[in-house]
Design a protein that fits this description.
2 copies of one chain form a homodimer.
Chain A (H helix, E strand, L loop, with lengths): L3 E7 L20 H16 L6 E4 L3 H13 L5 E3 L9 H11 L7 E5 L3 H11 L13 E6 L9 E6 L12
Parallel strand pairs in A: 1-4, 2-3, 2-4
Antiparallel strand pairs in A: 1-5, 5-6
Helix pairs in contact in A: 1-2
Pfam families (chains A, B): His_Phos_1
InterPro entries (chains A, B): His_Pase_superF_clade-1, His_PPase_superfam, SixA
GO molecular function (chains A, B): protein histidine phosphatase activity
Chain lengths: ~170, ~170
């Protein structure tokens, strides 16, 4: 079985915790966060990146991000999963992944939160989470994940903040 | 002292070792390698990335890459150093860096070779080199390197193959 291509996508800019009156899980993207997420989604499409499934955290800011990716056409399907909530565990997600990949060969995009996504990346590529990978909001990580022993044996091929992905003139 | 921004830049596509009649250190960029390196250099400029000094391996394919970056205006100065040759050691380069940063605050771009640049990155961010970071030709790594104990304590904020940096339409 070949390595699976997995993208981690951190949700876009959301209303700050301090000023939002509802629960943390309901915080939505700001207008700027929505706009930038649309820009990034269109850029992924332009780059020819093909995704089979978007898996998203159920929190509103992540789900809105995932829905924008779906709407723009980055992937044909979206699934919401607690595995990507801030309380999710890498081991449980890898367990889900080991089943999913048995019937799918395309790439997966996981939309979630920090510090989980950068810690998971460190665990996948070097076996320990040191907090030494910086993943900005609407930033992306690209990994090649082997079928057996993915922890400490995966490959990192991409890590980008949104500002280096958009055209210079497209930055706001 | 704040973290120093360091970019690693792998030389562009060069004439293959098997078909080049001179010594390995003299292998030049191909026409395609030159073209793509120019595209990436202009993109870095467009993104507003400011570099104080380009430090380059003395091998022809790296020096040509660095000269393109200089010509396009990514940085005002270029220095050639054996520290970035394939035989260079991370410890010796870090020793040079510790002196350089005492008199400079800007970012440094180091143009060199694989597997050195990706191994050095792994040593800087997770303390060991496992070969789990993929750096393509004309690809870029961005690091924040602390003044003390940089090994295993640096931050990775960027890793990109050239194809994800150029416009979709600019890819050849």
């Amino acid at each position: 079985m070949t390595d699976l291509t997995v993208f981690f996508f951190r949700h876009g800019i959301a209303v700050e915790r301090e000023v939002f009156e509802g629960s943390d899980s309901d915080r939505p993207l700001t207008a700027k966060g929505e706009k930038k997420t649309y820009q990034i989604a269109r850029r992924l499409l332009d780059l020819g990146i093909e995704i089979e499934l978007i898996l998203s955290s159920p929190l509103v800011r992540a789900r809105q991000t995932a829905e924008i990716l779906l709407e723009v056409g980055v992937a044909p399907d979206l699934m919401i999963s607690d595995l990507l909530a801030p309380s999710g565990s890498l081991q449980e997600w890898l367990h889900w992944l080991s089943h999913w990949r048995q019937e799918h060969e395309g790439a997966l995009m996981a939309v979630g939160h920090e510090p989980n996504l950068s810690h998971w990346t460190e665990l996948l590529i070097c076996g320990k989470a040191l907090g030494h990978i910086q993943l900005k909001k609407a930033g992306i990580i690209g990994l090649k994940v082997p079928a057996t022993d993915p922890l400490g044996n995966s490959q990192l091929f991409w890590l980008t903040p949104p500002k280096f992905l958009l055209n210079g003139s497209g930055l706001t």
